[in-house]
Amino acid sequence: MINLYVTEPGVLRRAPAGSPIDETVVWVDMVDPSMEELHRVDQALGVDIPTKEEMREIEASSRLYEEDGALYMTATVLSSVETGSPVASAITFVLTHGRLITVRHTDPLPFRAFATHVDRHPGAVTGAEGVLFGLLEAIVDRLADVLELVGAEIDQVSQTVFEAGQRTRGITPGNGGKTGKSNQRPPAPDYEALIAAIGRMGDLTSKIRESLVSIGRLAGFAGRNLRGRASKTGLAAMKTITRDVVSLSDHASYLANKLSFMLDATLGLIQIEQNGIIKIFSVVAVVFLPPTLIASIYGMNFEVMPELSWHLGYPLALLMMVGSAVLPYWLFKRRGWL
Q: β-strand 25-31 against 11-14: which pairing, if any?
């Protein structure tokens, strides 16, 4: 599909479907184009549009270059975040002779938001450079919004993780770090769900960082090559985009480090829970070991065992078994091992 945007005196508007690509066209937005549509744009503008396979190449020389006076810039843009299955896909921007061509095989929210903004405010953007700067600003703003959502979700998961750690140590949350006196232990959190949430946020954060890195490189390349061609307002907007990308990259790195710390803390709490279970089995084994030994001794089939003829032999054996079981338990409690 091809969306055309034409310029009129001081106004940028969407052209009707099927309109020709003439000199009034400022922005050619190609969404998952077919071979016929690629050939149509090639013939109309004399620009070699990269294919989907070429857009996937990751080396800088294949993503940022100039050819026949046209700037080819490919960036990784995050999309489908709202569906719960975020995708980082390549989008190519071709700036040539006062026209901007965008080639994409996905429909990220910033493109829809910018198109809606153009429809509502036709005079806000006019030239091809203005469309490029506006799209980049919309992409960076969207990444900032997603980072804010990730940060809020990380705070919620962090609170769950460390409240679980307080419960594991017998500390009542919000009680000033004091040990709770209740005999009923709060239920353990769903660690599997916590790890899945941390993994999901880590994957989203890594995609955001990948997108920010590619946009930062694109902004630097465009700023160098458009110096002397773009307006002062456009160059100032590009500098603002570059500063925003740097600050968001720092924040994304902070969130990634926090996620790594939370993952380590969650795995540590799981290990503490497992150690507690193993400790229970160990205590039970130690408590029942002496009674088992006593019962084994008196269960041997020897003819001469004086205790078997005693009237109080059986009660004495039971008392010895109870005492040998109570004594280790009392020692464990006194030393704080239980």
A: unpaired
Residue/partner pairs of 153-162 with CB below 8 Å, 24 or more apart: 153/197, 153/201, 154/201, 154/255, 154/258, 154/259, 154/262, 157/194, 157/197, 157/198, 157/201, 157/262, 158/258, 158/262, 160/189, 160/194, 161/189, 161/194, 161/262, 161/265, 161/266, 161/269, 162/265
Each residue's pLDDT tens digit, 58-90: 787 788 888 888 899 999 999 888 888 888 999
pTM for this predicted structure: 0.77
- What pLDDT does residue 115 have? 86
Tens digit of pLDDT for each residue in 170-202? 555 555 555 544 445 556 678 888 899 999 999
Q: Which domains does the chain have, with CATH numbers?
A: 276-334 (1.20.58.340)
φ and ψ of 181, to 5 deg: -95, -5
